[in-house]
């Protein structure tokens, strides 16, 4: 509501400005302030040295430390300094007494403290009966409010009752009322006396209404609490009477059924803990808050198959035949698993066995683990660890938390119904460390044969023997797995499939399955050799067969639609038919260029999805100044940066012997900059690209390479050679250079991996250059 401004018609004077925050200095009131701002301290000292008067004005925005005149209200109160007390923290406690309302008529804009010119407001209070009635009403109302509101001091009633006139009464009441600063400032600025008094009466009435609402809420809450206490007292009396008369409690029959199951099926020390919780349930009433937690705990404890294990009878020959039937290829992996099963058959135990299957997605790690469970006649539990960042997901939640439950290990045991299942811990390399702890620390105990016989879940709080569980861990890469965890596992590598293997898997496994799931049955057309090759090479570029399975399933749906519409489908599909049904390949394999280029070399890499190829580009520029610069771009990691530095030093040493100038600024770039790249295996590739750029000799486009390089130019072994050779064959490279120290590994690879590719082991950079650099001279770009 807008009010008429106060007319400035009183005496004119000057005083030091004291800005105050979140309070209003009212005439006739006593106000205590804590002064912390140096400018305010200075204003106080100036006023004490002269007439002890300050112009107390409220800030519009209390967050300003040094308020300007624009940030202060136009109306304030002329106040007298009554007392100042220095405080131990360096601030000053100031006691002011409000005298008269004033309006600022002139205020300097310089730095604080500021001395402003003011004009007093001539307040005239008539003595007619109407004003006196307002005064009495205000005093009576305030007396009621002060008696009910604990925030208002009781001595304020006497101060208000002794006020000289109605205006002073209104100012004092406004001072004591717990209302917002803006409302108090509004009272200070109202011009008409009767309007001002009406406004303060309205504020008092609003405060009384708030107090009435508070009392109503308090009475309702106290009534509810009294009712709850009364019901609790009666229930306790009823329980005492039932015990005295031998009457069963509300959970007695339930507890008796639990007791039989606990004593017959739960071993020590879990039995002792279960009986303790059972006594709690017996003594509980229907209103007890922990009934559901206790009941859930007992039911979980009784569901655990403490003594249930599957008796195994492993036939090694049958196991080998079943693995061959279920999985194509993977001969090395199958051999290792058969050896493991043979040892298990002779020893009769798998204690301490933790297998880790590592390989690209879609190569059969999880399905192979399930096949092992079938061969061993065990149940298989699956625990997905990807994205888990809370340790409680593994160990369980303590029962003090709302919604507590056992961890995933116990849940998998409950689902399996046996104490010796095969538990597959999937995607262990995708675990994350979060605010809830490190999940890998829980796995350290779980996968340690010397500790997992006493594994304790936080929810159960009793030890469980997991030493007979066969743990199979799967991962795509090992880099993100802590070394302490790797030390507890036996690593079994799953390499990617070659094109021939993927075609065989499609024909023997995927197509027969899609033939049935699509509903076509014997009407499913055959795939021509060109169509099958296109599916493997152009429609699904991967190391596994997951994308290939999806594309063949999509093909089955397209053919099912054609059949359902009454359209004829061919008996054999060609590559052209694939394009009509599936569209053009979304990820076609890039064709290798036939052009020889300077400073561009093809390298082979391994990522989470198997092998791939990557170009290394080198560009030279004239140096600016005496210092040579090396620029690296393409999201290159620290290990690869060091590898590039090593390659550059090695190449410059070689160029010096050949009399070739190498004093150029070098820029090494790896395309697809959004993908992080790291590792030492690109050292040989970078060195060949650098030599090509410095010498001006082009590189043969159908040569790819991999290998780490030392400062002397010798090649060192790298990982993932099988995946890299598969990638080279997939992209159509004719020659691949590998470190000479790894030449013996070729004998362990299937013939189809190296067939059609000329693999050249090279011992040093010089040998690599003989195979990689084209014979024709090219013009130096510089």
What would your notes on this structure say?
This protein has 782 residues and is of the alpha/beta class. The chain has five domains: 109 residues, LON domain-like (Archaeosine Trna-guanine Transglycosylase, Chain: A, domain 4, Roll); 52 residues, no CATH class; 178 residues, P-loop containing nucleotide triphosphate hydrolases (Rossmann fold, 3-Layer(aba) Sandwich), CATH 3.40.50.300; 84 residues, Helicase, Ruva Protein, domain 3 (Orthogonal Bundle), CATH 1.10.8; 176 residues, 2-Layer Sandwich (Ribosomal Protein S5, domain 2).
What distinguishing features does this structure have?
disordered C terminus, 782 residues, Archaeosine Trna-guanine Transglycosylase, Chain: A, domain 4, extended, single chain, 18% strand, five-stranded mixed beta barrel, alpha/beta, Rossmann fold
């Amino acid at each position: 509501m807008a009010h008429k401004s106060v007319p400035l018609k009183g005496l004119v004077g000057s005083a030091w400005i004291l800005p105050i925050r979140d309070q209003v200095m009212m005439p006739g009131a006593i106000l205590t302030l804590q002064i912390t701002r140096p400018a305010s301290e200075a204003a106080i000292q100036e006023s004490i040295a002269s007439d002890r008067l300050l112009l107390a004005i409220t800030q519009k925005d209390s967050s300003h430390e040094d308020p300007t005149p624009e940030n202060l209200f136009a109306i304030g109160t002329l106040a007298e300094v009554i007392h100042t007390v220095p405080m131990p923290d360096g601030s000053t406690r100031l006691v002011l007494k409000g005298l008269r309302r004033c309006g600022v008529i002139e205020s300097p804009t310089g730095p604080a403290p500021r001395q402003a010119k003011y004009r007093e407001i001539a307040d005239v209070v008539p003595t007619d009966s109407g004003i006196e009635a307002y005064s009495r009403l205000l005093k009576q109302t305030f007396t009621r409010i002060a008696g009910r509101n604990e925030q208002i001091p009781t001595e304020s009633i006497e101060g208000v009752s002794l006020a000289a006139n109605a205006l002073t009464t209104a100012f004092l009441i406004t001072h004591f009322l717990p209302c917002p600063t803006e409302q108090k400032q509004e009272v200070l600025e109202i011009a008409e006396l009767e309007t001002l008094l009406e406004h303060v009466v309205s504020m008092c009435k609003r405060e009384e209404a708030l107090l009435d609402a508070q009392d109503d809420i308090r009475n309702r809450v106290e009534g509810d609490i009294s009712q709850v206490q009364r019901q609790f007292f009666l229930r306790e009396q009823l329980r005492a009477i039932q015990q005295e008369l031998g009457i069963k409690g509300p959970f007695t029959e339930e507890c008796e059924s639990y007791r039989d199951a606990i004593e017959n099926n739960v071993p020590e020390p879990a039995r002792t803990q279960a009986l303790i919780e059972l006594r709690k349930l017996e003594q509980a009433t229907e209103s007890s808050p922990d009934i559901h937690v206790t009941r859930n705990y007992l039911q979980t404890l009784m569901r655990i198959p403490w003594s249930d294990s599957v008796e195994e009878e492993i036939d090694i020959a049958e196991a080998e035949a079943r693995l061959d039937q279920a999985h194509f290829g993977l001969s090395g992996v199958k051999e290792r698993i058969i050896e493991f099963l043979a040892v298990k058959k002779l020893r009769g135990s798998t204690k301490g066995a933790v297998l880790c299957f590592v390989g690209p997605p879609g190569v059969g790690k999880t399905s192979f683990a399930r096949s092992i469970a079938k061969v061993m006649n065990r149940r298989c539990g699956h625990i997905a660890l990807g994205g888990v960042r809370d340790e409680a997901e593994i160990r369980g939640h303590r029962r003090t938390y709302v919604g507590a439950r056992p961890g995933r290990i116990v849940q998998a045991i409950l689902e399996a119904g046996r104490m010796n299942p095969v538990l597959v811990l999937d995607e262990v390399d995708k675990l994350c460390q979060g605010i809830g702890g490190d999940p890998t620390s829980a796995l350290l105990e779980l996968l340690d044969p010397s500790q997992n016989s006493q594994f304790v879940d936080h929810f159960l709080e009793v030890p469980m023997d997991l030493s007979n569980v066969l743990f199979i861990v799967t991962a795509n890469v090992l880099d993100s797995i802590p070394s302490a965890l790797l030390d507890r596992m036996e690593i079994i590598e799953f390499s990617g499939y070659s094109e021939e293997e993927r075609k065989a898997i499609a024909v023997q496994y995927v197509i027969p399955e899609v033939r049935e799931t699509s509903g076509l049955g014997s009407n499913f057309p055959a795939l021509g050799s060109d169509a099958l090759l296109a599916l493997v090479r152009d429609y699904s570029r991967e190391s596994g067969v997951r994308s290939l399975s999806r594309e063949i399933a999509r093909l089955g749906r397209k053919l099912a639609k054609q059949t359902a519409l009454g359209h004829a489908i061919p008996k054999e599909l060609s590559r052209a038919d694939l394009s009509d049904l599936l569209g053009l390949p979304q990820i076609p394999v890039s064709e290798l260029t036939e052009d020889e280029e300077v400073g561009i070399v093809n390298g082979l890499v391994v990522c989470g999805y198997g092998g791939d190829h990557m170009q290394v580009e080198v560009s030279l520029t004239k140096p600016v100044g005496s210092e040579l610069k090396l620029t690296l771009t393409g999201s290159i990691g620290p290990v690869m940066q060091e590898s590039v530095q090593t390659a550059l030093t090695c190449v410059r040493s070689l160029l010096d012997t050949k009399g070739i100038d190498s004093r150029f600024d070098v820029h090494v770039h790896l395309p697809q900059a959004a993908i992080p790249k790291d590792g030492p295996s690109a050292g040989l590739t970078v060195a060949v690209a650098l030599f090509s750029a410095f010498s001006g000799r082009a590189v043969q486009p159908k040569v790819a390479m991999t290998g780490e390089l030392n400062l002397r130019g010798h090649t060192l072994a790298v990982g993932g050679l099988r995946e890299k050779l598969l990638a080279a064959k997939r992209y159509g490279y004719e020659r691949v250079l590998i470190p000479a120290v790894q030449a013996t590994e070729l004998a362990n690879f299937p013939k189809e991996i190296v067939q059609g590719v000329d693999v050249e082991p090279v011992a040093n950079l010089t040998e690599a250059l003989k195979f990689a650099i084209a014979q024709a001279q090219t013009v130096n770009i510089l």
